[in-house]
Amino acid sequence: MLGSGARDRPDDAVSRYLCGPGVHNGGVTLVEMGIPTVRSGRPSLDGRPETPLLVDRFGRIARDLRVSITEKCSLRCTYCMPEEGLPAIPPAELLTAAEIVRLVTLAVRELGVREVRFTGGEPLMRRDLEEIVAGCHAAVPEVPLAMTSNGVGLQHRAAGLAAAGLSRVNISLDTVDRADFARLTRRDRLDSAMSGIRAAVAAGLAPVKLNAVLMRQTLHGATDLLRWCLDEGCELRFIEEMPLDADHEWARANMVTAAELLEVLGARFRLTAVGREDPAAPAESWLVDGGPATVGIIASVTRKFCDTCDRTRLTADGMLRSCLFSDQEFDLRASLRAGASDEELAQLWRGAMWQKWAGHGIDAEDFVPPERTMGAIGG
């Protein structure tokens, strides 16, 4: 039986286990452009307590499912994708709309997932996005369905997605300067992105949250971006850049930290710390000029929140990932297409999450970035 609390705490059996066996007969072979090929293998359930929930050895429970539905994108952001884009996933290897609906339903009904977010690549690149949303909404109408997008082209589909059952959107917007936008995304599509944001607000996909990755080349425009978001009625969240870029140019010494951003924003706005309303939420919030508007900062590098992470991830080609930074993946698609029952799929999922790391380890001297880039994992 699934727990009834908003954030159920694991029982004593979960919190006692701090380590254990890993993958049985599994491994990862790396191929070009950072998309691993996962050999057949099943995760170990040794030492796992009897619970239907997605618990790990450190007492965390995954409630938030991120579902990547495509590797394709209409932009080429330098911190996410190579200039030529990711190699195409053969259509036969992508999860179908029906498969996504089945797995989302399973995650909610059997594993205790309470939030679902569709990611990419860019979800709008899938023509059957509305079908996916409508199918999931019909199957689990009580669960909020969200989407992360770059906003390009959203003006044509926002109303239809809202009608299909989409609850809200997060949209990536790193700058409101057209030249900076074109340099960062390698595409001159700022007007389309802004139109998409306004269409999302008009369609009631609220709250519309805008995500901006902190970059040295756009820091000078951070206050203008915040001012634009306040005027448009959107919630802005800045995100520290993580080592997930395709060009592998990330360096801790060059990244813009949350502390540096607060100094820049504080020169124009009066900021009052609010903190986190939800311990599992990644963003810390500040009231802007006394509120009620806020600005958030996701300091995933300098103020990591791994100990409260409640996410589980499904890639566009049907691989389970317990952590954004782990190359350990489990092939759910193969089992699904081989005729596995819902309970068999659920056990595979539970085992995958039982292997979850304590944290991303970016601060460790021997840290190695994951082979998949952000675009190939899903945000």
Please tell me how large the radius of gyration is: 20 Å
Q: What general form does the structure show?
A: globular
Strand content: 15-25%
Low-confidence stretches: 1-40
Structural class: alpha/beta
The H/E string reads HEEEEEHEHEHEHHEHEHEEEEEEHHH
Describe the structure.
By secondary structure, the protein is an alpha/beta fold. Helix content is 27%, strand content 17%. It is built from eleven helices and 16 strands. It has helices spanning 12-16, 97-111, 129-139, 158-164, 178-185, 190-202, 222-232, 258-266, 332-337, 342-354, 374-377; strands spanning 23-24, 28-29, 37-38, 42-43, 64-68, 115-119, 145-149, 168-172, 209-214, 235-240, 271-275, 284-288, 294-298, 311-314, 319-321, 329-331. A twelve-stranded mixed β-sheet has the order 11-12-13-10-9-8-7-6-5-14-15-16. The protein has a two-stranded antiparallel sheet with strand order 1-4. Strand 9, helix 7 (222-232) and strand 10 (235-240) form a beta-alpha-beta unit. Helix 2 (97-111) packs parallel to helix 3 and helix 2 (97-111) crosses helix 10. The longest helix has 15 residues, at 97-111. The protein is globular and about 55 Å long. The two termini are 30 Å apart. Mean pLDDT is 84; it is low at 1-40.
